Amino acid sequence: MSCDTFASLRGPVAVIGAGTMGHGIAQVAAMAGCETRLFDVDPAARERALERVRTNLERGVELARVEPATRDAALGRLTATGDPAEAATGADLVIEAVPEDLDLKRRVLSEFAALVGATAVLASNTSSLSISRIGAGVPGPERVVGLHFFNPVHIMALVEVVRGDRTAERVVEQARQFAESLGKEPIVVNDSPGFASSRLGVAIGLEAIRMLESGVASAPDIDRAMELGYRHPMGPLRLTDLVGLDVRLEIARYLHAELGERFRPPALLERLVEEGKLGRKTGQGFYTW
Predict the structure, then answer these.
(1) Counting Cβ atoms within 10 Å, is residue 108 exposed (0-12), middle (13-18) or buried (19+)?
(2) Which of 82, 114, 132, 223 has the most other CB atoms within 10 Å of its CB?
(3) Of 147, 164, 190, which closes a domain?
(4) Number of domains in the chain
(5) Structure confidence by residue, pLDDT tens digits, 43-98
(6) Residue 74 in contact with residue 31, Cβ under 8 Å?
(7) Distance CA 144, CA 205 (A)
(8) For 133-184, how does the pLDDT look when each residue is reduced to its tens digit (9 = 90+)?
(9) In what order do the strands lie in the sheet with 36-39?
């Protein structure tokens, strides 16, 4: 499989932001045969990202899920840079994976829109922000599309392809084919607060937090109810710890503003975030990690 397998996008892939999502997107793109440039202004973030990719690939080899030759080829296709022009040169696809801030995403995509060709696709990995609003602040909004990956990117199969109000159909199709070329299973959704996955996932997660808050059951028992009763691979409270309580809170606040009271963040979630208990990344959330 290579980048030549999807639509007309055959140039390098530029991934903007070397955090949790960015390094994962860069990894799967490189594994699929794409020359991949990972951009971040922070040298330490770039080095951490490359190390995490190496660790993921080594673990895949140990588990016999990744061939050593695949690991080596992927690492050979992936470079990290702090130079926007170097990241963008020749790129047919730019994927931003910066924090969930509308103005920041607009600025990043606008900067790279000026560095790539007029037909390059500009994708946002946002989990909830409006693609239409992001695109409205970017030159060429018809080439702005949502590509919402899930964490951990190298394991999770789903990718949401989000169509903004002005997204061209050829761009939606190119984004869908790109996701398939990575071995992912894309779904296409129209721009709406929280899209399909975040809206449903946050609704379940917030209700689970309210149940814990009111003493209905313990966190492990609430999670087991969904794992055993509904065959969810992970319960909503453990999943919130994995995603990050701060991330879940910001999405809930956005959905509350857009969709109303049913997405009002529970007081327990607000308090834990204020206390710095953000889940696995801090060692404490609904569980101790």
Answers:
(1) buried
(2) 223
(3) 190
(4) 2
(5) 999 999 999 999 999 999 999 999 999 999 999 999 999 999 999 999 999 999 99
(6) yes
(7) 29
(8) 999 989 999 999 999 999 889 999 999 999 999 999 999 999 999 999 999 9
(9) 78-81, 36-39, 13-16, 93-96, 121-124, 144-148, 158-163, 185-190
Non-local CB neighbours of 153 within 8 Å, separated by 6+ positions: 21, 24, 25, 27, 28
What is the C-alpha to C-alpha distance for residues 289 and 123, in angstroms, rounded to an integer? 33
Task: Report whether 13 contacts 95 (CB < 8 A).
Answer: yes
Element (H, E) at 67: none
Structural domain span for residue 207: 197-274
| Same domain (yes/no): 15, 139 | yes
Residue with tokens 């701060």: 246
Rounded CA-CA distance 288/283 in Å is 6
E strand segments, the chain: 13-16, 36-39, 78-81, 93-96, 121-124, 144-148, 158-163, 185-190
Q: How many residues does the chain have?
A: 289
Instruction: Give the span between the Cα atoms of 198 and 166, in whole angstroms.
Output: 22
Same domain? 83 vs 13 = yes
- pTM here is 0.88
Residues 26 and 43 placed together within one structural domain of the fold: yes
CATH number of the domain bearing residue 255: 1.10.1040.50
Q: Are residues 53 and 75 in the same domain?
A: yes
The reply to whether 122 and 203 lie within a common domain is no
